[in-house]
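Notes from the 1:1 (GR / supervisor)

We went over the backlog. Supervisor wanted to see one worked example end to end before approving the batch request, so GR pasted a single chain during the call. The sequence is below; no edits were made to it. Supervisor asked that the structure be written out right there so they could see what the output format looks like.
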Amino acid sequence: MAKVSPTSGPGPQPQIAGTAPVCRLGLIGRGIQRSKSPALHVAEAKAQGFTCTYELIDLEKLGFGLERLPELLQQASEQGFAGLNITHPCKQAVIPLLDELSPEAHSVGAVNTVHFHSGRRIGYNTDAWGFSESFRRGLSGASVARVVQVGAGGAGAATGFSLLELGARALVIVDLDEARGRRLATTLARRFADRDVRPGRELAAELAEANGIVNCTPIGMPAHPGSVVPATLLRPDLWVADIVYTPLETQLLRDATNAGCRTLNGGRMAVFQAARAFEIFTGRVADAERMLGHFNQLASAPETAI
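Structure output shown during the call:
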């Protein structure tokens, strides 16, 4: 069982004797070949005058299941990685394999960043801050009085936490796995006892009274085409956010734009969570604006150039 560390922070930057500083990083997840994390971290390190390598550890490409996660973490630690980003479907499965959790990771119940420091594995969640910062910039002034969230996995845990931190008074969580939706709602309701947090079943009925909706599932990515919300349920007074960033304009956001909704894509969240993770891995402050500019360049480039 992982224990909570209230003070765990970035450790010293790794170095190879006689050379410029170097930092070895990676990402564990399934279907991650289009991830922009490698380019973001490598470019930010170069801008700061040191070398970063970033490897994709793709469960799909390797033919591995979650049962190989302990082995992959152990190998990364032994091979001198400074840390790993963690994505679907590993953000909750990784927790029992860690020595410590940051307070936010403990509150969220999901980890997307693991730092190897002094022989220990320390788990963080930078997704929650990444979504909050993205929302503040991209949907400034939007009401969060009543929000519907689709998806209750690791990303959904972070986003739900963020919405409540942003002031949501009512949060309805809809998930195809109703038991998972109930578990997340129960966890968040315990953390935010003065809010109305509950699982939902019928999306149309829940959206009728909502101010906004967030997609926290992989639906909308190239491997999972489509939208979690029928276009007929969208209306101009509803804001719509999607954490998917490949592509930036998902079917959901395209439908929402056509319906006259304010929209928020997953790009800024991807950048801001990466900036915070970079600081944890390297002990150096990331230039989030520079990283955002680099992300925009990547996003506008032909897919073959990414």
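Supervisor's comment: Residues 267-282 form the longest helix (16 residues).
Batch request approved.
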